[in-house]
Amino acid sequence: MKRLSVFLYTLAAMLLGVSCSDYLDVTPQNVGTLEYAFRNRNEAENYLFSCYAYLQRGADAVTNAGFTLSSEIIYPNNLSQRPINEVGFNLIRGLQNAGSPALNSWDGDNGNYSQFRSIRICNTLLENIDEPVDLTAAEKTRWIAEVKFLKAYYHYELLRKYGPVPIVDKNLPISASIDEVRVKRAPLDSGFNYVVRLLDEAAADLPVTITNQARELGRATRLIALSLKAEVLVAAASPLFNGNPDYADYRDKDGTVLFPQAYDAGKWARAADACREAIQACEAEGLRLYTFIQPATISNLPESLRQVLTIQNAVTERWDLNAELIWALNPEFGYQGYATPRMTKESAVNIFSNPSTFAVPISTADLFYTEHGVPITEDVSWDYTNRFQIQTGTADTRYYVQAGYQTIRGHFGREPRFYANLAFDGGIWYGNGQLDPDKAYYVQARGTSGLAGPKDRNTINITGYWPKKLAHYLSVYDNGFQPVHFRLPMMRLAGLYLLYAEALNELNGPSEEVYTYINAVRLRAGLPTVQAAWSTYSNTPNKYLNQAGLRQIIHQERRIELCFEAQSGWDLRRWKELQQVLSRPMQGWSVYETEPARYYQPTTVLVPVFSQRDYLWPLKQNALVVNPNLVQNPYW
């Protein structure tokens, strides 16, 4: 992509516009520049990479609503400096509006870019793919498939944010009339069907996997296309989009019904078939759930920490070494410093090299199971009522909680994913340059004197929990921050397994096949099977035997397994559960307090504002003025 000239980008901006509302408002001044872009294979490949460019921007987690609107992480809104774009985090504060929508991917402003512009660039390549005379037939076939995949993805991104959207299968000619330019929103099912058709066409001609990883890792493959198809069909079958009564009789100005009016169980059948096909294709190519392989540089690693590293590295391991990773974006995850607490004296001095400001609310910590693999509110042997009482770490717990350190009961007896995902006061942080497990660092978060505690208004964690999963265990925060880079997954095999389990349960209820795929994820996480866990330890032992109960289990399993991976926000939205999750104040610990009994007093740090209208993004009011054929989303 770096080979693409500034000149070509200027052309793209001129020719393709910046939003759906000003579609082809600008007539190109020099059509010959487009001919230059496709004069040979090399220039055309540059243009292909420009089709990918907007996809890669999705690697910036803070502009992804699945990350910022998940309720998993809170970003302080009272910092004296603003090192990141915080508009996405502010949406749960009720700051969305139709006059100037945040994370606006329809028009391309307020923290996001226009997906319609991305689609038009893709269409331009398809229109000119025959021009380069030195492009081989095999390359042409593959490039067309890649661009179809990208068009499908960009349409899908719009669908899950806005619901019905215009389908832009081809660019309008320069001679298009005003009426032709004033596009309409297609019915929702038409949009989903269009995306699936493109993915089917793309999958047929994409390489199964990338063989030249040094040059091509990140480009579309058949496995990625099939897995995305599975996700798209699960979304289309989910409550937000499948006969949602909240959008009953929602029509455009011509009377066309835009949302499906009745629930269709057949959508879950299509989704299950797509999940099965994607899983079989991935497993046929050797994909499997990741397990940490201990390098020669580490000795005497206990099984408990090995389990923690398996869970962490399923996200942070290099793509070429991670047999579970189906798809990630090429840009490196840029927020490890926001997820890492200060644990050394040098790091406490160099506070400006590492903000530590991604704060996890208590509600997210409560989401994780007990060590028996059931929710903390259900475990008959776990003292939920007294979880805030002070307890001291011992030699038996020293690989999870520092021996001799006072924390709370709620930090003991939790599942391995709790310790892999979260850093907390007294919690062990294996790594950070110290690979002797018996000398591992631990978090000291209480008060201003604690190494990880609040130091100023720019380097404060307002809850006392950090998203540990988002930092590579070999990254070092000491005298400055030296990260070991990784790419945040878009799709992991574990996520695909849970999609399949969800689709099967919604289709026919509990079955051995449903349990098989949930249990594969649980067993990798060091937990007993669903059947054994609920039968033995839950106060609702028959929960997994009925569809509604198993649905709750699957939803919580996805939220735990994919926590902090920019997935839960989208899941909660399609399940129509986000409003419920955001109906309660978000709390953290009293981080300025030093004594344990005073520190461990929950305090409200944010009161979310999320209503029915917020499930879909509003269209910008100006877009409705420019194009009177568009209709606003319900309740805006």
UniProtKB/TrEMBL annotation:
InterPro entries: SusD-like_N, SusD_RagB_dom, TPR-like_helical_dom_sf. Residues 107-224 form the SusD-like N-terminal domain. One of its GO terms (cellular component) is cell outer membrane. It comes from the Bacteria. Keywords: Cell outer membrane, Membrane, Signal. Gene3D superfamilies: 1.25.40.390. Residues 1-24 form the signal peptide. Its main location: membrane. Pfam families: SusD-like_3 (PF14322), SusD_RagB (PF07980). SUPFAM superfamilies: TPR-like (SSF48452). Residues 324-636 form the RagB/SusD domain. PROSITE patterns: PROKAR_LIPOPROTEIN. It is found in: Cell outer membrane. The keyword Signal applies. Belongs to the SusD family. This is RagB/SusD family nutrient uptake outer membrane protein. It comes from Dawidia soli.
